[in-house]
Amino acid sequence: MELLPLNLLPIGCTARVRQINAHGALRRRLMDLGLIIGTEVKAVRKSLSGDPTLYEIRGAMIALRCEEASKILVERFVL
Amino acid sequence: MGLTGQSTGLATIRRISQVQVQLSGDIVVALAGNPNTGKSTVFNSLTGLKQHTGNWPGKTVTNACGRYGYNGKNFVLVDLPGTYSLMANSLEEEVARDFICFGDPHVTVVVVDPTCMERNLNLVFQILEMTPKVVVCVNLMDEAHRKGIQVDLKRLSDILGVPVVGTSALKGQGLDRLKEAVWSVACGRFSVNPIKIEYDGVIEDAVGIIEPQISRLMDNLGCSISSRWLALRLLEGDQAIAEAFKRYLGTDIFASTDLRERLHKTRNMLVEQGITIGQLRDRLVSALIHNAEEVSRQVVHRKESAINSIDSKIDDLLTSRVWGIPAMLALLGLMFWITIEGANYPSQILAKAFFHLEQKLVELFMASDAPEWLCGILIDGVYRTLSWVVSVMLPPMAIFFPLFTLLEDLGYLPRVAFNLDNFFKRACAHGKQALTMCMGFGCNAAGVVACRIIDSPRERLIAIITNNYVPCNGRFPTLIALATIFMAGGAGWLQTIVATLVVMAMITLAVGITLLISKILSRTVLRGLPSSFVLELPPYRKPQVCKILVRSLMDRTLFVLARAVTVAAPAGLVIWVMANVSVAGDSLLSHFAGFLDPFARLLGLDGYILMAFILGLPANEIVIPIVLMSYMSAGTLVELDSLSALRQILVEHGWTWLTALCTMLFSLNHFPCGTTMLTIRKETGSWKWTLLSFMVPTITGIVLCFVVAQTARLLGLV
Question: For the Ferrous iron transporter FeoA-like domain, which residue ranges apply (chain A) (predicted)?
């Protein structure tokens, strides 16, 4: 299955996190929000100008800018 | 210019975090939890303290302290900043962690949100690794119930090995059980037996090698920090923890060469097994979250519910690509319209009452044969300024502030940050700056304090320096009054609507200037790229309307009255003295105003207006009253009971629409008030940044007013 950066996940789609390429504090922050390898993420909506995007992570709504989201590689669920 | 911890407020927060609570006999209780779990509401309900709780992440940044009694014992409750973790990635996390480690609380209460159990349990596990004396408070039970979420509290307590209490703090439910649980853990009635998170075999081996040594060291220090927890932190190369030991206990934990060597050896062993520090961290966090997932699966049961879809329907509108900004403007407009329309009547009534009382006071003075100058100082100086501040400034503030608080408690502000983030990103600023700006609407000093939620020092300074561009509650009445008098011709509802539009145009301009100046700052003195941005949008919550109305009305009224007495009254006295002491045939006031006049004229103002801004340094509320005082002291005396009377005075002194416009622009863009500047000094710890915060908006105002005034004159518009 092909990996895709989270920022390219279409709105309304769900995917599973496979790789986190962020480092240092950002990596830690993402993981503290419960975003680890294997976590399900749903792209909920985009902001006015297309950035940031709102994601549903473990029941919480978290907005990420595309710079951060692009560091998270996900595998899209096939329906 | 270096961005040291000193210059960005770290020092201040560290100082505050060392709460002095170790009084004999008192039981110290730390209150921890994720942001937006209603932690502050729990705090307020237990202590009866009136700390305001907004519905946005990061409202509490410092430790607030309160007391309550239970079973004959005195409990000191310390509200820690809301954090997702205690790994000291940010200032808030460091403050919270340091308090649990070194503040030596007898009990730590962790407030969790049952609707996001997995993420909340992550924090619970981290705290259980640090201290066994924990009570878990599952708050927002009512909200969970509405969303069809059931939590098996008994089961959770059995698994965690500590008491678990369900509460709905907003409704005051479950708080007695919480007090009971805290008491029973504090005095050992409940024997805690906390769950131990097991990591991979290799990691456990590594911990086993260094833990005995650390345990001995802690015993020698008489320190109750868990040696297992400390071993894990040292293994993952946590620098902050060693520094914290130096800071709070004055010891260098690496003084022992034995520990250093063992740590080194163990790390090498891990690397040989293919586990670098980075991977170790990942494995630790992942293990916690997997455990949280597992526990959550066992205790949380969900039924499908319609509530979530209502939230998302509201968000469909409020954060929509098409309707997001119009909805935001409409909400803002509605707030101003209500403020302008609603403030009129109480203003008139107050003004009439004050004028009536003034006549009585004058009669009293006449009857008592008091000297004329005393009557002048007290009535024309102190009393009149005071009554102006109260009657013109109080009503709009008392109406706008609760409306704003309502939006804040609903959870709308993070949506504003979400909508506007891209603009801030392009200005190389932080998305949360939108939140701090929103706070600036209430009070710039509060906005500056709110900047603590921004982790990156560079972006925090930008947010602090530009916060003053947002007009605070003390400047709204000025904008509203001038917009109503000079911009909005006609009468009735049309006038209110035009005034609303003018004020909103001013706000839009303020946001635009904030973005522009932020961009300029990040290209010059505060160079850098935007840092990472993670923002949680909390669920909408029903605000406690009555409580907000009563409390903010009271708060605002008391605040304005206090300001009127401490700032406006002395200012009135100074103005009266200046207007009545003559040197070389002219009063001091006219000398001063005359001196400023040529420069002020270039900016479309006059000497008196500029002088009012300068004398209004202690508080923006008194600027317009000072202008009026100065005009009236020159002779004309009218009954000031309505805006038309105000207009008459201003027009008599040469005001045109351009004067009003420039005064509004200068009100938006000038030096922060005294309180805000002191706050900036405190938050940045540096006079240099305070000076910059003074200069930047002032220069903006001067340039803007100059360009507008000269252009209008050149085009012959006036």
Answer: 4-76
Q: Which residues pair with A14 in a beta bridge?
A: A42
The more confidently predicted of residues B629 and B468 is: B468
Residues 6 or more apart whose Cβ sits within 8 Å of residue B378: B365
Which among A34, A45, A51 is the nearest to B422, CB-wise?
A: A51
Residue pointed to by tokens 């405190």: B682
The answer, yes or no, to whether residue B249 has pLDDT greater than 80, is yes
**For residue B418, what are its two tokens?**
């979400």
Give the one of A33, A46, A47 whose C-beta lies nearest to B119's C-beta: A33
**Total domains, chain A:** 1
The tally of domains found in chain B comes to 2
Picking from A34, A59, A68, the nearest residue to B533 by CB comes out as A68
Position B293 in a domain: no
Residue B389 domain flag: yes
Answer positive or negative: Cα dihedral of B440, B445, B448, B453.
negative
Q: Which of residues 534-553 of B touch A (CB under 8 A)?
A: 534-539
Average pLDDT, chain B: 86
Which tens digits make up the pLDDT trace of B270-291? Answer: 999 989 998 999 999 999 999 9
Q: Which of A61, A62, A67, A70 would best serve as a mutation to test chain B binding (most B beta carbons within 10 A)?
A: A61
List of chain B residues whose C-beta atoms are within 8 Å of the C-beta of residue A64: 533-534
ipTM value? 0.94
Three-state SS for B415-428 is: HHHHHHHHHHHHCC
Hey, are the CB atoms on A48 and B324 less than 8 Å from each other?
Answer: yes
Q: Could you tell me which chain A residue has the CA closest to the CA of B34?
A: A33
The domain that contains B175 carries what CATH number? 3.40.50.300
- Could you tell me which of B160, B166, B165, B178 has the C-alpha nearest to residue B75? B178
CB-CB under 8 Å, B115 with A59:
yes
Inspect the interface and report whether the beta carbons of B419 and A48 lie closer than 8 Å: yes
Which of A66-70, B113-117, B382-386, B610-614 comes out lowest in average pLDDT?
B382-386
Token pair for B563: 């300001």
Q: What distance in Å separates the CA atoms of residue B660 and residue B97, rounded to the nearest whole number?
A: 52
Q: Which residues contact B505 (CB under 8 A, 6 or more apart)?
A: none
Measured in whole angstroms, how far is the alpha carbon of residue B348 from the centre of its chain? Answer: 33
**Among B320, B284, B302, B60, which residue's Cα sits nearest to residue A58?**
B302
Contact B519, B527 (CB under 8 A): no
Contact yes or no for B118 and A58 at CB 8 A: yes
CA distance B115 to chain A (A): 7
Classified as helix, coil or strand, B671 is coil
Using a CB–CB cutoff of 8 Å, tell me whether A1 touches chain B.
Answer: no
Does A56 reach chain B within 8 Å, measured CB to CB?
no
| Domain-terminating residue out of B186, B211, B228 | B186
- By residue range, what is the domain housing residue A71? 4-76
Burial grade of A56 (CB within 10 A; 0-12, 13-18, 19 or more): middle
Measured between CA atoms, how close is A2 to chain B, in angstroms?
Answer: 23
Give Cα B192 to chain centroid, integer Å. 37
- Contact between A69 and A5 (Cβ < 8 Å): yes
CATH of the domain at A20: 2.30.30.90
Domain containing B661 equals 324-529+542-714
Binning pLDDT at 50, 70 and 90, where does residue B52 land?
low
Q: Do B315 and A45 touch (CB under 8 A)?
A: yes
pLDDT attached to residue A49? 80
B79–chain A Cβ distance below 8 A for any pair: no
- The last residue of one of the domains, among B155, B171, B186, is B186
B560 found inside a domain: yes
* Distance separating alpha carbons of residues A72 and A35, to the nearest angstrom: 9
